[in-house]
Amino acid sequence: MSPVIDGSAVDKVLREAVEAGAVPHVAAIAADRDGIIYEGGAGVRIVGESGDPVSTSTQFRIMSMTKMVCTAAALQQVERGELEMEAPVDIYCPEFADVRVLEGFDGDHPKLRPAGSRATVRQLMTHTTGLGYWFWNADLVRFEKVTGLPNVVPGSAEAFKAPMVADPGTQFVYGINTDWLGKVVEAAAGKTLDVVIKEGITGPLGMGDTMFRLDAARLDNCVTVHVKGEDGSWTSAGELLNQEPDWWAGGHGLYSTPRDFIRFERALLRGGELDGERILTQETVDAAFRNQIGDLDFPAEIPTADPAITDTLRVGPGFKWGYGLLLNTQDIPGRRRAWTGAWAGLFNTHFFVDRTTGVCASIYTNSLPFITEHEAWKLYGDFETALYASLRA
Known about the structure:
- This is CubicO group peptidase (Beta-lactamase class C family).
- The protein folds into two domains: 8-66 and 207-392, Beta-lactamase, CATH 3.40.710; 79-187, no CATH class.
- It is 27% helix and 18% strand.
- The chain is built from eleven helices and 17 strands.
- The protein has helices at residues 8-19, 66-79, 89-92, 121-125, 138-147, 177-189, 193-202, 216-219, 258-269, 282-288, 376-392, and strands at residues 25-31, 36-43, 60-61, 101-106, 109-113, 225-228, 234-238, 255-256, 273-274, 277-278, 301-302, 313-314, 319-321, 326-328, 341-345, 349-354, 359-364.
- It has a seven-stranded antiparallel sheet, with helices on both faces. A two-stranded antiparallel ribbon has the order 3-8. The chain has a two-stranded antiparallel sheet with strand order 4-5.
- Helix 1 runs antiparallel to helix 11 (376-392), helix 2 packs parallel to helix 6 and helix 2 crosses helix 7.
- It starts with 7 loop residues before the first helix and ends with a helix.
């Protein structure tokens, strides 16, 4: 049984963030290798509509936190010899051969050319194919505007016609790589991604509340996405994800609860095993937490190209990418140790796994814009600082 920490300082951080209007609601959880050591929440599920308090059993859209789950499914296939990391993506998904590189525009006409090399499965895992997201790339914003091509969030398969913005292997570009990886996983398995993930990850780990589409009871326990009105107060924007998408999105499609997702985090913390169920080997987990992008760097800053969706990302220098994980190469004073693996979701969810300290944690709200510097982004840091102070107490 894990010792429960004095979480009063963490409770205060969550409560004050909601009271100040930084977030509409928030739930947070932390665990060590043996179990949960903290859980708490503040605010209500739907501001102005529901008085249900948010807790670690509330359903959230975890968006890009889905990426590590999909990556783990792909790594399972690699372990079994069903998927080849160095194989070109178009071996598994022939339509990938049609993806071009966007060089710029001639008036309103995109200038496209063939890629300089065939992107590989490994490059999908490491975001080095050149595929991007519109919200952090002005050229993709313009491309979508002049072509009418949707981004991936509405769930239309047309989104897979989006171009690269760099040649494979030349840059780290965060983007729709894991959506393509999910299609690769499906091709290798001969099954849809929801089945692959349930059979290989959420089922064995007892994550019964983690899924791509919620049933009626779980929908009634789910927050909605919130945005701020003209008066600065939070209001519900409702359900923003297509409940009948053309594909199960390996890059952003899962719903989960903090109590469910912490089981996946603990499995990573424990080297791929939880409660006697092994989902990955220790060697594979170690590789996921190592630099897999070589001399390339995760950008210190990624300017926003769509302020309604996200703020500028400001992680600072010294970050790399493993398999599905952002890695800090230096200790962050008072917070996570070097080579912690972490990532986040577009509606302001965030997780990290600090294998050196022996702790994992995650924090959840569903709101836009993403990572607002003095609101959600600040809350991430305040939560982590309070948690580590409690661990040292």
